[in-house]
Specification:
53% of the residues lie in helices and 12% in strands. By secondary structure, it is an alpha+beta fold.
Length: 344
């Protein structure tokens, strides 16, 4: 694959490509008002959108903001539907086919056929190799980035993209997306483009760790990364080398929870506490399900329970804990349902 994206704009800037982007963006939202309004004059809306993009006059709309509290408090931003179609087109036509193949094997967030479960599976495989090679004793370096999405330096992000794009129209549109919001720092949590930009940004760290430092057992899930080390001295060395790289090259800081410690304590990563021979569900996952069951029982007593939503949420949780040693936990929690006979 070429080192830079060259002469791809015209190939992907077609009416059919934008229709395909609309079809992807509407999935699960086809009855929402803004989607229906866009579809009423679909051809005209797409043609006008393309004309504005081609002439450099396209402007993204105003964000809607809302707050989520799980797994922690975050401000989520959502663009108008038309802009989400544009993001779909940009990511699927340029980022995924030309940028994602450059990612290392062991990065997992927002990538097809990877995800958290594969990350934990690969981590456990690496842990077993380390235990065998190091006589059962080794160290874990676990780090993450403080306020990652909010602190990404837009100038650095643009320079990274500039090194990878040798197509003037595509580069100009990339800059428009990056600088859509005012300020030199932060990309919006919730944008489809932000997920991939965030991965591209820390791909610089991945490449440094794997290809310069030659670290064998390195994994990353978004801004959370793990390194398995032979001993404490090696873990300490990599901690300070990578801390310096993150601060000087990426203008970011390690979260204060970043640390190195003996492997027998297990590794808290992607929702599980992982050991060489088993996995356990992290405490937060247990607490969250207990809260839900308590709320569902209250709604059941008040005759306001939506059983379909409960069943979907419960099945999703069962799927999650099936990747850990949680059979007895599942039985205990199921007994807490006041309407357990109605749950499959």
């Amino acid at each position: 694959m070429p080192k830079t994206i060259r002469n791809k704009w015209e190939k992907h800037f077609t009416f059919d490509k934008f229709v395909e982007a609309h079809e992807r963006a509407r999935k699960g939202k086809c009855y929402k008002k803004e989607v229906l309004e866009f579809e009423v004059n679909l051809e005209t809306n797409i043609s006008n959108m393309m004309k504005k993009i081609e002439t450099g006059n396209y402007e993204f709309g105003k964000y809607r903001e809302f707050i989520i509290y799980e797994p922690k408090k975050r401000i989520i931003k959502s663009l108008p539907y038309q802009d989400r179609v544009v993001h779909q087109w940009y990511v699927e036509e340029f980022i995924k086919p030309y940028m994602m193949p450059r990612f290392i094997e062991h990065t997992y967030a927002c990538l097809p056929e990877r995800g958290g479960h594969k990350a934990v599976h690969d981590l456990q495989k690496m842990m077993r190799i380390m235990k065998r090679n190091c006589g059962g004793s080794y160290y874990v370096l676990k780090c993450d980035i403080a306020g990652y999405f909010y602190n990404i330096n837009k100038k650095i992000l643009y320079e990274i993209m500039k090194k990878k794009i040798n197509d003037q129209k595509l580069l100009e549109f990339t800059k428009k997306i990056i600088y859509d919001e005012e300020g030199e720092r932060g990309i919006p949590i919730g944008n489809y483009t932000s997920q991939l930009f965030a991965n591209i940004y820390l791909n610089e760290l991945d490449q440094y760790a794997k290809n310069v430092l030659k670290i064998k057992f390195y994994l990353r899930y978004m801004d959370d990364f793990i390194i398995l080390c032979k001993n404490k001295e090696e873990a300490k060395k990599y901690f300070y080398i990578l801390k310096e790289f993150v601060e000087k090259k990426l203008d970011l800081k390690f979260n204060q929870k970043s640390k190195y410690y003996p492997s027998h304590l297990g590794i808290d990563f992607c929702g599980y506490i992982t050991y060489e021979i088993n996995r356990r569900l992290r405490k937060r996952g247990k607490r969250n399900m207990l809260k839900k069951i308590k709320q569902w029982n209250k709604e059941y007593r008040n005759d306001t329970l939506d059983l379909k939503i409960v069943q979907e949420s419960w099945n999703s949780w069962l799927g999650h804990i099936s990747h850990a040693s949680c059979y007895n936990l599942m039985k205990r929690y199921r007994e807490k349902f006041e309407f357990k006979d109605l749950i499959d």
